[in-house]
Specification:
The protein is an alpha/beta fold. The chain has 9 helices and 27 strands.
């Protein structure tokens, strides 16, 4: 072979038809190197003679050992560094080809995703335009941008209209950018509703009821008014047009039942801000029902008499005072609940907030996870406190039966009278100056009891430390035992009176029964 044309024909014959694109790239590289050598004074025959045989080049290509073959080939006409660069560029081209193939495979899926998003934002825009009389800024802009992307995806299959499609794409992008700048400058990217005020009055105080639900941020207050007035509700703030229609067109009669600002997928770009709700309740009125269901809000509830008192709150604080109800139920995920001087049978479910109840009359059940419960001056037949890892404190109360259980938290009961059962798995139990019957059960956590007066008690533990401090002037017979732990009992020699007795047992923990020293 004396000419490059003959060499390339033989090299082409060694390549498969589907690899012609790679062959053309290699052909261009060889022709470029030939031109360089000719400028240096070499003849075409000399250059061709120094090239590796065509079948060897093809074999190296299919074995993906182009770099090794090029470096070790003694007949190579190209310097080693340049061949390495050629190989690297070839690998980059292969990677681009691979990515192009992957894109072509994923192109239908990407098209469907973009089409689905476009459909959603188009429906969003139409729905808000018709229902709220508002041009949704962000959904409209996204529709324009998605339209531009979809046009570019389908451009490959419409060869004759490519210039038109490119023009439409540029136009859509420009229009979308202009709308973005306009809505940003005017503060209309998010829909904020309309400023609105309304006072709704019930027909009479007999069997009146209030029910209010909202997913927006709400500040709620109750106000006691003259007994000659009728129960009423005032709403004030920014509201969606659809919610204003609910308020205006609702038939309230003797019960207000409003559900405003309920979140759904078509409120993603709606921000109405905090609203205000005030309940006006005539003095002496006994409501059939008082219900609040809120996602976010702060509540100040005063002087309410109702058969059912129901609060369902995700985030926000509750302050309630002088609430008289047959049944009460409060659900709070992360807010603080404070109740003072009220009377009802109450159930509280709090996940992580603080619960403070003082001066309450009625049965009480508290279910908590990791919050804090502070209870004072209760007068109850039954109190049940259940917590996982939080802290429960009960003080200065009279309870016929108290049961407090925890998994890994703290249970503290002070100056309380009644039958008291405190149970914990791994946390701490503290009993101080209680009257009645005590039963303290702990797994591996510490148990501490401090007593001035005599009391009947049973204390048991698996492996936790037990410490009992007793006023020596009110000595009582204490029976204490432990399996493998240290034992000290300062009241082991006290004569059994038969009326008061303390029994302390631990399997492996230390037990110390000590005289209380002032």
């Amino acid at each position: 072979m004396n000419t490059m044309e003959e060499y390339l024909n033989q090299l082409k014959a060694a390549f498969a038809e589907e690899d012609m694109e790679d062959f053309e790239e290699l052909k261009e590289d060889l022709l470029e190197q030939l031109a360089i050598c000719l400028e240096e004074g070499q003849t075409e025959a000399e250059v061709v003679a120094r090239l590796a045989p065509p079948e060897e080049i093809a074999a190296d290509y299919y074995a993906d050992l182009s770099l090794d073959a090029a470096i070790n080939a003694k007949t190579s006409v190209v310097p080693r560094e340049e061949i390495q660069d050629v190989f690297i560029q070839t690998q980059k081209k292969r990677m681009r080809k691979f990515l192009k193939t992957v894109f072509m495979m994923l192109k239908p899926l990407l098209f469907l995703v973009l089409l689905g998003l476009f459909g959603f934002f188009l429906v969003y825009t139409i729905k808000e335009l018709s229902g709220e009389r508002n041009l949704a800024g962000i959904p409209t802009i996204l529709c324009l941008l998605l339209s531009a992307l979809i046009l570019q995806l389908i451009k490959g299959g419409i060869v004759k209209k490519r210039k038109l499609i490119n023009g439409l794409t540029i136009g859509l992008l420009a229009f979308g950018t202009m709308m973005l700048l306009f809505f940003s400058a005017t503060g209309q990217l998010m829909y904020t509703g309309r400023q609105y005020y309304k006072e709704i009055s019930l027909t009479s105080s007999n069997h009146a009821a209030f029910s209010f639900d909202s997913d927006a941020d709400v500040e709620i207050t109750t106000v006691e008014v003259s007994s000659t007035e009728k129960p009423s509700l005032m709403v004030k703030g920014r509201f969606k047009e659809s919610d204003i229609k609910k308020i205006e067109n609702g038939s309230h009669d003797n019960k207000i039942n409003l559900s405003l600002d309920k979140e759904n997928i078509f409120d993603t770009f709606t921000r109405t801000g905090r609203s205000e709700v005030i309940f006006f309740i005539p003095k002496g009125t006994i409501l059939d029902d008082f219900h609040l269901g809120l996602s976010r809000g702060d509540l100040r509830l005063l002087d309410i008499q109702t058969k059912n008192f129901d609060l369902d709150l995700i985030a926000g604080d509750v302050y309630a005072k002088n609430i008289i109800a047959d049944e009460g139920n409060i659900d709070s995920e992360s807010g603080d609940v404070i109740i003072e001087e009220s009377a009802m049978n109450l159930k509280v479910n709090s996940i992580s907030g603080k619960t403070v109840i003082t001066g309450m009359l009625g049965d009480l059940t508290i279910e908590g996870n990791k919050g804090l419960s502070i209870l004072k001056f209760l007068r109850s037949d039954n109190v049940a406190l259940n917590n996982y890892s939080g802290r429960m404190i009960l003080e200065d109360s009279e309870i016929k039966k108290l049961k407090a259980t925890a998994t890994d938290g703290q249970v503290i009961v002070k100056r309380t009278k009644g039958d008291i059962l405190l149970s914990n798995e791994n946390g701490k139990i503290v009993s101080e100056e209680n009257l009645g019957t005590l039963e303290l059960e702990n797994g591996s956590g510490p148990t501490i009891a401090i007593q001035e007066s005599k009391v009947n008690a049973k204390v048991s533990s698996q492996s936790g430390f037990i410490k009992w401090l007793q006023d020596p002037s009110q000595s009582v017979k204490v029976t204490a035992s432990t399996g493998t732990g240290e034992l000290r009992n300062d009241f082991s020699d006290v004569t059994d009176s038969g009326k008061y007795k303390i029994d302390v047992k631990s399997k492996t923990g230390d037990v110390k029964i000590l005289e209380k020293v002032e």
